[in-house]
Design goal:
391 residues, alpha/beta, 16 strands, elongated
Amino acid sequence: MAVINRIAGFAEEMAGWRQHIHANPEIGFDCHQTAGFVVERLREFGITEIETGVAESGVVAVIKGQGADAPDAPVIGLRADMDALPMEDRTGAPYAAVGRGASHACGHDGHTAMLLGAAKYLAETRAFRGRVVLIFQPAEEGPGGADVMVREGVLDRYGIEQVFALHTLPGVEAGGFYTAPGPIMAAVDTFYIDIKGVGGHGAYPQETRDPVVAACGMVQAIQTIVSRNHDTRQSLVVTVAQIKTGSADNVIPETAYIDGTIRTFDKGVQEMVHRRLAEIVAGQAAAYGVEAELRIDLGYPATVNDPEAVELAAGVARGVAGAAPVITDRPREMGAEDFSYMLEKRPGAYLFIGQGEAPGLHNPAFNFNDEIAPIGASFFARLVETAQPPR
């Protein structure tokens, strides 16, 4: 691996940062302790332009390179997410967050450590032109810290022209890079259906309007959205995740509840799904003589990489990954990512970095591989130096 020697020299320190964050997980927007730790490190690196409290607990910091104050100075943004998941830590590591009800089972502790490593190096060397804006973001796992940071004006206030992020990926070669131009992760919406009928004794169904049967009809009909209403050449997932109803084996309940998730890449497909859900719910409710209400919450949009940014990032990755693969045609993921809000406003790229063999993301046994942190930090640092070379 062509890791920057200086970054390799403080790899053990980076592992210590990461393990500290892992041992002290925080959820959602409540990442204040993690943010405080990040700020302490940034100040140790000699970085003085630091904004805190962005999106409640986010941190934004600026490293100035050559000609940073010139009117035409380029500005690049690098983002890392800081939040954990609401699940118990089952890693068995000495620094596991046992009994905390939270765990870094998606590698955000590693993302933060990699960006801190790049920050330490860039603050020492300043071998680039313009400015680097470091974005430490809360609430990626929900309800969307990137969206809040964008709406609070981070991209505009700091003049960010392009923005990049890394995410660890288990099950592929450690230190490899995986990305693609265009859509790489899906948009996610959530639907909720509340059904109201007339309950009664299970022995006398003729006296009821059964919401259970109506719910079953709706679920069956929802399956036809993908199989009969959708162009099979485009990716789409519509999943019914919950059906809740009833309390006893001899009672027809009054209400039923359904919810699920929608994953799309194309706005036209997304609109079709929303329309068909509304038609199905209304039609099935009428057919079974019940009342039904559909609600759809719009979630993260699709994560869409800029082709030129992917080309830049892939070239840098090849210089860092050594013998490990750099894949630029990775199949699209049906998972979602709130970095999409930043990519809607600025060109940039989202890349996966290989974790090696490990439990999957969001598995309580997942633990970030500290050996790849210097690779990710070197990628961020070389990306800045390549995108904004000194004159």
